[in-house]
Specification:
The chain has one domain. Helix content is 54%, strand content 13%. It is built from 14 helices and 14 strands. Strand 3 and strand 4 form a beta hairpin.
Length: 412
Amino acid sequence: MPKHHLSQLRVARCGYCDCLLQIPPLMRDQNAECPRCMSVTAYGRDWSLNRLAAIALAALILMPLAYTEPLLKINLFGVNINASLWEGLWQMAWQGFPVTATLVLLCAVAAPALFAGGIFYLWIARRFRWSLRPCLLILEKLKEWVMLDVYLLALGVTAFKIRDYALLNGGFGLVPLFLLTLLMTLLMIHFNPAQLWQRYYPLPVPSSNTPPEQILHCPHCHYSGQPNVAGRCPRCLMKIRTRYQQSLQKTWAAVLAAIVMLLPANLLPISILYVRGVRAEDTIMSGILSLVQNNNVPIAIIVFVASILVPLVKIMVMLALLISVQFRISWRRRWQLNLFRFVSIIGRWSMLDLFVLALMMSLVDRDQILSFTLGPAAFFFCAAVYLTMLAAEWFDTRLIWDVHAKPTTSRT
C-alpha cells in the first residue's frame, strides 16, 4: 500500500475489537483490515444507489409471482394440488401454529419485501430530499432475516420428500422465486450501509489530537467519533455506549432459554402424518432416519446439519464465548471471533426445517386419506432458532478483548 500523509489518515475504531485505527484513503479494489482481529473495517468497493435501486425494483416486481404462483404441483390420488408460499403460511396459521407461521412469514416474505422496498425508498428519498436515517437504521437489522436462499433449498428438500407420495412437477412460481433469490443475494452482498451513511451524512473524522477515550464506535451507522452533548451519535442520533447495554445478561438469557427449548424440540414429534386414518409421528431425528431408509441420504444429511448440528454447534460456541468472557478465561481471541462469525452465518440455516414443514402442509392435505400437520415440537424448535439468532445479535464481540487487552492504536 502506498504511503500517505498523516493528514490523509482518518481515525476509526474497529467495531469488533475496539482497536483504534488510522485508515488511509482506499481504492475501489481495496479493503482495510483491523490488524488485531483481522476484521474488515472499511471497504473500497462501492455499488451506486442507482444500481441497488434497479435490482431492488426488479425484486419487488418478481415478488407477487414468486409468492402467489404455485411453486410445486403434485398429483395425489388423481387430484392436482398446487403449493405456494402463501398456502403454506395459511395452513400453518389455520391449524393452530400462528407463532411458527409468523416467523416463516418474517423470514420468507416480510423481511425480503421490506429490504428491497427500503433500498428503493432510499433512491426515492434521496431525490426528494427526505430523511434517510430511519430507513438506513432498519435495513441493516433486516438484512440477517432475509432467508430466501434457505427457502429455496427447503423447496428442494420438500420435492425429494413428497415424491414418495405423489407425482411431482415444478410450478409457475419456481423460476420467479429462483430469480428473486438471486437478486436478493446480490442486494445483500453489495448493500454497504457504512458507505451510504458516509456518502449522505458525511461528518468530519476525529483529528489525531482527539483523546482516544473520547472516540467511540456507533454500531448503528459505523461512525467513530465523539458523541454530542446528549450522548448520541451526531450522524444517526442513536445513543452511543462504550459497550452494548447488558450484553452478557441478555445473551446468557437467550442461550439458556434456547437450550430449554431445544429439549422438547428434539424429543417431541415435529410432524404428524395421517395415512388412511392411521397416525404416524416423526421427531426430527426419526424423520432423518426415514430419509436414510428411503435412500435419500444427501437430503438426510442436509436436514441433519440444518436442524440438529447447526443449533447444537451455535449454542456450544455461544456458551464457550460467554464462559470465557464471564470468567475472564484467556484463549485465542481471534479464534473466538472467527467462531462467532461462523455461527452467526450458519445459524439462519436452522430455518430450513420450518420452511419444509410449511411446504409439506400445503401439499399433503387430502382429509382422511392422507394429511400432514405440525407436531408440538415445531413451536419449541421455532423458539430455539429465534433465541439463538437473538443471542448472536446481542453478544458484543468487543468483550472478548476487554478480558485482557488494553486499548491500542494501530495503522492499517
